[in-house]
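Anyone able to model this chain together with 2-phosphoglycolic acid?
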Amino acid sequence: MEVVIRPTEADAVRLTAAILADDLRKNPEMVFGLATGATMEAVYAELTRLHREEGLDFSTAKTFNLDEYIGLPADDKNSYRYYMNKHLFNNINIKMANTHLPNGMTDDIKGEGARYEAAIKAAGGVDLQLLGIGQDGHIGFNEPLSSLASRTRDKSLTPATFRQNSIYFDPPESMPLRAFTMGVGTILDARKLVMLVTGERKADILAKAVEGPVSSMVTASAIQFHNNVTVIVDEAAASKLQGKEYYYWNFNHAPEWEKYR
Ligand code: PGA
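re: yes, here you go
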C-alpha cells in the first residue's frame, strides 16, 4: 500500500482524478469501479473538466458503482444512479449502457447481487476501483462485521451511516435503511484500488483502516490484503497517521510519483 499526503483537499482530488485519467489514456477500455459520497463530487468535476478541456475520452470505458439504496428509483435525487448521472455520466461521453449500478428497484433482492457480480465478470473485472471511507470504516456499504470475503448483496445500514447520509434526505427519516453493495471480496478482486479520504473528521477512521489491524469491524482495513493500493489523503485526514514522515518521503522521492509532483 502507498499513502500519499497532499497539502489540501483540492490537491488530493486533482491527484486522484489524474491517476484515473492516466489509466484511461493508457487503456481506453478501462473498467472503473466508482464510488459516491460528498468526497467524490470534486473528483467527478475534475474528470468532467479533463473531458471538456483536454478531450479525455470515455467512449469505450465501462463503470460499475459500489452500491445503491434499495427502494430508490433512478430519478430519485438521492439515488446513486441520479448522483452519478448528475456529477459524471451526463457530463462526459460515456455510453449510458456501459454504466452500471445495482438495481435498487429490483423485485429480486436476493438475486440482484449475483446478477451484478455476473455483469462485472462479463466486463472482464474491474481495473481500477475508486473508494471512499465511511465514518464507521465502511467501503461501499460494507458495514462493520461484513465478511471480508463478502460478495455483492443487500445489507442493513448502521446508525452511523444513517447519521452521515440522512442529512441529504428530506425528511431525514426517508433514507432507506438497506442498500446493495459490492462485497469486500468483490472490491478486493479489482486489479487496483485508489482510496481518497479528506477532512479532519475522517482522520481517526483512516488511521485505523490503514495502520490498524485488519478487522471486519473496519472493513476498509481489508485493503491491506490487496497488492496494488494507493490511498490519497489531505493533511487534515492524515493528522492521526503514524507513518507520515515515510509517506511524504515516498511521494517526494519515489520515481513513480515524479510526474505528479
Ligand atoms: P463521504 O462518504 O464522501 O460523503 O464522506 C464516504 C463513504 O461513506 O464511503
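The mean pLDDT is 98.
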